[in-house]
């Protein structure tokens, strides 16, 4: 009988610890929502804002691993939380979305007139054979960007591996993004 009581007492203690632990986790999660966070403040420099619906086309030039391509594609998908427009940032059913997210930060631009842009992952073109050579000129970059259909409003971004170089570019030279309409 004493052995049975010890086993029962151990089970009760184990359940009590489990319930207390889950209660503490729930309390911590609730506390995150009770603490109000300071709103993100952006300075409006009165420049042009990207508005409307855009596809972001990725032009992979060189050998990229599947993981590298997936990482960049996932980032582009995370820029918009509007599942109606093709983003896959929604969490699995029953799983809350992670906050803050890139989409929640990007949504702060909606406060400015005329509102925020909505971005979606467009076409991905892979040129692992380096068909334009190992050194890319501005003209070659334009040729790469032209490989994507220009029938939609899109931002086409050539991405190159670290072993390639572009003439006229230094590490501090920002890459040119081609906007097609």
Give a quick rundown of the structure.
Belongs to the EXORDIUM family. The protein has 181 residues and is of the alpha/beta class.
List the helices and strands and how they pair.
Elements: H1 2-34, E1 52-61, H2 66-78, H3 102-106, E2 117-127, E3 135-136, H4 138-146, E4 154-160, E5 165-166, E6 178-180
What does this protein structure show overall?
With 181 residues, the protein is of the alpha/beta class. It folds into two domains: 30 residues; 129 residues, no CATH class. The chain contains four helices and six strands; from the N terminus they run H-E-H-H-E-E-H-E-E-E. The longest helix has 33 residues. The strands form two sheets. A four-stranded mixed β-sheet has the order 2-1-4-6. The N terminus and C terminus are likely disordered. One of its GO terms (cellular component) is apoplast. It is found in: Secreted, Extracellular space, Apoplast. Belongs to the EXORDIUM family. Keywords: Apoplast, Secreted, Signal.
Weakly predicted, low-confidence segments: 2-28, 83-92, 174-181
As a percent range, the share of strand residues is 15-25%
From the alpha carbons, calculate the radius of gyration and give it in angstroms. 25 Å
SSE string, helices as H and strands as E: HEHHEEHEEE
Oligomeric state of the chains in view:
single chain
Alpha-beta content class? alpha/beta
Number of strands: 6
Main β-sheet, spatial strand arrangement: 2-1-4-6
Pfam family, one: Phi_1
GO cellular component, one term: apoplast
Subcellular location: Secreted, Extracellular space, Apoplast
Family: Belongs to the EXORDIUM family.
């Amino acid at each position: 009988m004493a052995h049975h009581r010890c086993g029962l007492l151990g089970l009760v203690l184990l359940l009590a610890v489990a319930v207390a632990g889950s209660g503490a986790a729930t309390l911590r999660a609730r506390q995150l929502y009770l603490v109000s966070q300071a709103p993100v403040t952006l300075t409006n420099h009165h420049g042009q804002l990207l508005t409307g619906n855009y596809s972001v086309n990725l032009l992979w030039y060189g050998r990229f691993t599947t993981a590298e391509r997936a990482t960049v594609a996932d980032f582009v998908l995370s820029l918009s939380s509007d599942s109606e427009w093709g983003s896959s940032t929604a969490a699995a059913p029953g799983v809350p979305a992670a906050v803050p997210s890139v989409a929640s930060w990007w949504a702060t631009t909606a406060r400015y007139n005329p509102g925020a842009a909505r971005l979606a992952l467009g076409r991905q073109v892979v040129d692992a054979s380096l068909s334009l050579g190992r050194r890319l000129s501005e003209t070659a970059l334009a040729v790469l960007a032209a490989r994507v259909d220009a029938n939609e409003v899109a931002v086409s971004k050539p991405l190159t591996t670290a072993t390639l170089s572009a003439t006229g570019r230094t590490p501090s030279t920002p890459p040119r993004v081609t906007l097609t309409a």
